[in-house]
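lol ok so funny story. i was supposed to be doing the assay writeup but got distracted and ended up predicting the structure for this chain instead. priorities right. anyway since i did it might as well share w the group, maybe its usefull for someone
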Amino acid sequence: MERGKMAEAESLETAAEHERILREIESTDTACIGPTLRSVYDSEEHGRFMEKLETRIRNHDREIEKMCNFHYQGFVDSITELLKVRGEAQKLKNQVTDTNRKLQHEGKELVIAMEELKQCRLQQRNISATVDKLMLCLPVLEMYSKLRDQMKTKRHYPALKTLEHLEHTYLPQVSHYRFCKVMVDNIPKLREEIKDVSMSDLKDFLESIRKHSDKIGETAMKQAQQQRNMDNIILQQPRIGSKRKSKKDAYTVFDTEIESTSPKSEQDSGILDVEDEEDDEEVPGAQDLVDFSPVYRCLHIYSVLGARETFENYYRKQRRKQARLVLQPPSNMHETLDGYRKYFNQIVGFFVVEDHILHTTQGLVNRAYIDELWEMALSKTIAALRTHSSYCSDPNLVLDLKNLIVLFADTLQVYGFPVNQLFDMLLEIRDQYSETLLKKWAGIFRNILDSDNYSPIPVTSEDMYKKVVGQFPFQDIEMEKQAFPKKFPFSEFVPKVYNQIKEFIYACLKFSEDLHLSSTEVDDMIRKSTNLLLTRTLSNSLQNVIKRKNIGLTELVQIIINTTHLEKSCKYLEEFITNITNVLPETVHTTKLYGTTTFKDARHAAEEEIYTNLNQKIDQFLQLADYDWMTGDLGNKASDYLVDLIAFLRSTFAVFTHLPGKVAQTACMSACKHLATSLMHLLLEAEVRQLTLGALQQFNLDVRECEQFARSGPVPGFQEDTLQLAFIDLRQLLDLFIQWDWSTYLADYGQPSCKYLRVNPVTALTLLEKMKDTSRKNNVFAQFRKNERDKQKLIDTVAKQLRGLISSHHS
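and the output, tada:
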């Protein structure tokens, strides 16, 4: 029972479950019945469920059938109405077909028109699209056309800018067109063409400024000269406390304010024509002479193309080559000043251009590059000037060269170039200038001395007197009191030489101008040069005149007088130098003039020449001496040659009245000593092998004549018997032999009070030997005469004693 109840309960539960599933199937979307059906198959009652499902289907079929039976009539009515509608629909279809046929027939033209309209609209749309594309292409074509025009007119920098816009702005918008690809492919070629053409313009520019550097430099130096002239005019105006001219260190020459970032013009490179502007008052500046736009254009073009470094290297390399060409001087530069001027103009022109480039471009050249070029130029220029200036023998040319170098240095100093080495080199040229001046003045002095008459200057009027005194500082109160006509003691070469010394000083001063030297340096330079003039040039000229073969005693006497007055004038030369340099002689390290020494040396040389000349004249007279050394006759007068000699000496010493006393006395004493020495030599010479007492007597008369001349006082100032002492040796020797006072000589020899103190035993023996030989040869029968034998023995005895004296003296 319980099992049956349980089975029944389960059956009821299953039936309820199946009922639920069927309701769920009926109420649920067919897409979601999968889980429901799965629950049926998961249980083991699907067979029973199928039966339940079939039962439910049959129930629904019966309900449908009931529903259809209920609505059947309505359905039949609906079918009948539908058949009627079909007939009407057929009619409507026929009408529509007819209407369509008519419409098609009537709209055929409209369709054609619409087709045409469609084509027009399509064309219009295509045209509009084409116009739009052309509007994009036209700027490209216009820019390209503009580019070609700019290339043709050589406006390369704008062409490069146009090319940049074309490449980066316009071509990317139409890059899919073939012609754009052609343009793109052509752009590198155009860039290279612009580079090549701009480089060609730069080469033309470089060649042009190389040819016209001298014109640029000439212009710069003219402007510097104008500025210096203006400075000098200002400095010449009176200023309190100003004692010396000074010079501005720098001044503006050219206005270099031009744009440095873009070219000023699109003109071709080159030098502008300024030939018609030379007569204008204002000298044009560098930017007025040179069109620098090719440099700027090429620099900007290469900068835009990313090749600035290449351009800078090329420019610097070419300018270095040009610098070497400019710095190579012509071989004949030293011949004329124009050669130096052209050389300087080229150098100045070169560096004016470089300085302008330095200040108007950003980095094309830099200060280090300019300094390097200037160092090279300075060394080569100084070497060239040293070489070529050494050939200059004309002081005027050297002076003009110095002025040109100063202008050259001042011009370049304005542009900031150091020029100290040039001024140092000018100091070297100053020494050369001094040498050329000395050579020139050597000729001047030679002409003055050769043309002088060596006679005192006569003056017949007050004007003539003042003229001479104005030329030479001379003061003599006694002469001023004398009546005209009267004579200056010196000859014409004195004022001429004095004035030429002053002219030399002026010439030295000219060279020192504008060298930026202090007054002390100028004073020292002038004094040293003047000392060279006095001690070397003038001294040599005077020495040459004094040593001249045909110089006479009168000329020598006048030279001594002249040099005495020139020596006195040295203090006035000192004052003259002090006045023009404003440096007092008392200043420390001030060089003193050596004129006094020069004129003293010349005077001493003239004195010596007088002494030598007198001695030569005496020798000439002595050559006329013709003694008969074997004569036995006793003469009663002096020899004729000696009488003439004494007369000559008297007349000569009469001319010495204007000489300083000591000079005349020395000349007279020298002449007497030379005469005495020559007479002694004449007596003792080896050619005179024998002589007689008679010859000694004649010789004694001649010596007495000489002593008489000495006693007469031919030159005032000698003390009593001083001049006679020149003949004392001869006098004592002759007295010893004529008086035959050997006993006294031999007894007193060696004593200070000896009567024959000046007689040398060697001299006495020599003369005694000559007399002994004479006695032996001339007196054949001397051995038969007792007195002759005694005399011969006495001579031998005296000779023996003299030899003893000599030997004892030597021992």
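Residues 251 and 532 are 38 Å apart (CA to CA). The two ends are 206 Å apart (CA to CA).
back to the writeup now i swear
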